[in-house]
Amino acid sequence: MPKDTPDLLPDAHIDAARYEEMYAASVNDPEGFWGEHGKRIDWIKPYTKVKDTSFAHDNVHVKWFEDGTLNVSANCIDRHLESRGDQTAIIFEPDDPNDEAKHITYEQLAKEVGTFANVLKECGVRKGDRVVLYLPMIPEAAYAMLACARIGAIHSIVFAGFSPDALAARVNGSGAKLVITADGAPRGGRVTELKDNVNKALLHNVLGTRCLVVKRTGDQVAWVGGRDIWYDDLAERVSSDCPPEEMNAEDPLFILYTSGSTGQPKGVVHTTGGYLVYASMTHEYTFDYKDGDVFWCTADVGWVTGHSYIVYGPLANGATTLMFEGVPTYPDAGRFWQVCEKHKVNQFYTAPTAIRALMGKGTGFVEKYDLSSLKLLGTVGEPINPEAWNWYNENVGKGTCPIVDTWWQTETGGHMMTPLPGAHTLKPGAAQKPFFGVQPLVLDPTSGEVVEGNGVEGVLVIADSWPGQMRTVYGDHDRFVQTYFSDYKGYYFSGDGCRRDADGDYWITGRVDDVINVSGHRMGTAEVESALVAHETVSEAAVVGYPHPVKGQGIYCYVTLMNDETPSDELKKTLSDWVRREIGPIAKPDVIQWAPGLPKTRSGKIMRRILRKIAENDFDSLGDTSTLADPSVVDELIENREKG
Ligand code: ATP
Ligand code: MG
Question: Of 385, 410, 505, 602, which is best to mutate to test ligand 1, by the most ligand atoms within 8 angstroms of its C-beta?
């Protein structure tokens, strides 16, 4: 049953007419459009060239503002000091709700980052050197990022939940001179011994990588003399003043590995100028950020979402950005909402996986808190099923906060498709419209031909470059070309499928690998999953195809039930009939397997690649599982595999 959607924001930066006008300008005259909008950040030497890009298979290159120079940290800090030095830049909310939150002003941020930058120099870090950050969600993570940017070092953040092996691969892969970590990371009431993990990761390090340690828990740590350095020891000796390095627009800002949902993670390289223009512009327009608002993105800085929408986008805009160290369910499932109330959050941005998890705990946890400060909600990371969208809208947004469903990737630097809250009437589950400068096309997956018109479906490619686009895969430009520009020549291939509906709005149907072909009917697995999750007994579902003697591919469903439900064959039949009724006979599941847990990446995305292998009975080639949050889930699923 269709539900009402929230009204548009009345006084938003971008209304419907303005969107149309700006979008047309952005694609008809990209040089002129970005030449103008590039000025939203401060340049040391202004650019005279705007765009030099090619998606031609034999000559892929992406350059924006290439003769301009700037410093990203100066854009995020120094330029705000005169007008808003006393304004809070970062609100830090610690893991334990009884510990005090911190409010760091722009003035303080300048001193902290200046000090951190001088500490990096003391450690021998120079322009162009790589620095790995393996830190909790504490202000020092932002200081370290901005300090690298200040001196022109390239940071590569590794999510603090990753194992020593995964960390070692990324330290060696980037040839890092320094790893910055903390003694420990409190999260959800437990402490991860980060320094111990670094010790293991650096055990066989031959690069001479050193380790800078920030104090968080005060726990005892094992120390390697000559290699390890306490941050505090150096910080008290250096000045808090560090002039920003003049960087070229195309100098790298950071390397970041993708989450590994589909295979070996890729070392995505972003540069300074175009990235910052794009991150700050999308932050302002997508979230309709206004001066004085408190913005909260719940992602970890270890993901691109944290880079663009906790640190770089908001701070470039002079915003107040919230950094949360904890998890949504500690001390209980009301934590997000308690933090929203406490800090009077205006825009709240999270992932569907978090919403689904909280949905399963009931509405009591939301109702306890005053959420009247919220103006807008957002999601990112996966398609959001309408069930979760409606729950978010009704219980968190109280039906009055537009929800921006932002489709984008580590590779894209910022939002690619999203409704704008003052311009587009919402459709639950749709990414709807391209952001300025983004030219999406739908291709026929087999022929590679462009599919024109509305009411069509296929693979999603982008026809031309935008400033936030990744420039290369670190140390492997061929892999960049192979991965993104080879399957469909002349286009950037996203790896995702999409539908353009009768109104010309876009819906992401999931990864192209996740499309199944049942008796000649192509179907996105996301659709079957949405139907399953819409049933009251189901908390989460993952659907994959497997070889079927008659249909070509059969539908294999992994289903996690709500806490208080009991699995039974009868319930399987109920669910099977339910999907058949919701979507049609063609979508009736062939196999349902109860799954107490699903294999997920550390960023919470379901790894269907592994589920496919299990469904195919092919347990020997599960591939890279190093980015799994809980590998034991896989053994459980293999053990209880159902026969198709
Ligand atoms: P890898 O590329 O290593 O397999 P990954 O694709 O999960 O990992 P990310 O860059 O973190 O790495 O995720 C981007 C992907 O997440 C998109 O390609 C898309 O599949 C999915 N995604 C992100 N946001 C949305 C959204 N709003 N709607 C639908 N899907 C989304
Ligand atoms: Mg990807």
Answer: 410
